[in-house]
Structure to design on (182 residues):
């Protein structure tokens, strides 16, 4: 069955929007700290979304939606580290845009590892800078990073898992539904 360009675009848009909503929903379910699909979604969006604006908007929309729901239900959605968290996801989306022209299994693995490192370094720098829990010294920054190491494992496992599901699932879906292919 042949699809028009508009209907193919609509099918792709609906599928990608559904992924955004799923990512937002998964943040609301019980999960280990830092084990959510948002970083994988940011990387995915950078690779597959046609516009750079959409690639940045997808993970930020998932975060804003889920943070708003968390704020309404638990009062824990909005916090002082949001610029660091959101900024991290924007940089991960940029990494996905860079990956777009170099896409392969090894480059994807390298990008996932880089995204884990970016998120860890940026968000924990924010914790050190904003929380008052650590002295404003190099030793305080190192102590902050050391204290965050247990969360790094969760992030790594989650990002690898969700990246495999998103990228593998999308490639499988494109084979089953050719209208989703570019």
């Amino acid at each position: 069955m042949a699809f028009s360009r508009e209907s193919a675009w609509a099918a792709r848009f609906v599928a990608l929007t559904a992924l955004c909503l799923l990512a937002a929903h998964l943040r609301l379910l019980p999960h280990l700290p830092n084990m959510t699909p948002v970083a994988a979604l940011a990387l995915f969006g950078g690779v597959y979304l046609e516009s750079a604006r959409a690639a940045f908007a997808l993970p930020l929309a998932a975060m804003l939606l889920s943070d708003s729901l968390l704020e309404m239900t638990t009062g824990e959605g909005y916090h002082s580290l949001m610029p660091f968290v959101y900024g991290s996801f924007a940089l991960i989306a940029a990494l996905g845009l860079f990956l777009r022209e170099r896409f392969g299994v090894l480059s994807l693995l390298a990008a996932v590892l880089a995204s884990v490192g970016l998120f860890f370094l940026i968000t924990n720098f924010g914790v050190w800078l904003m929380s008052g829990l650590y002295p404003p010294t190099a030793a305080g920054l190192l102590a902050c990073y050391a204290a965050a190491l247990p969360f790094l494992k969760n992030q790594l496992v989650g990002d690898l898992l969700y990246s495999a599901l998103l990228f593998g699932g999308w490639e499988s879906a494109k084979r089953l539904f050719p209208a989703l292919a570019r």
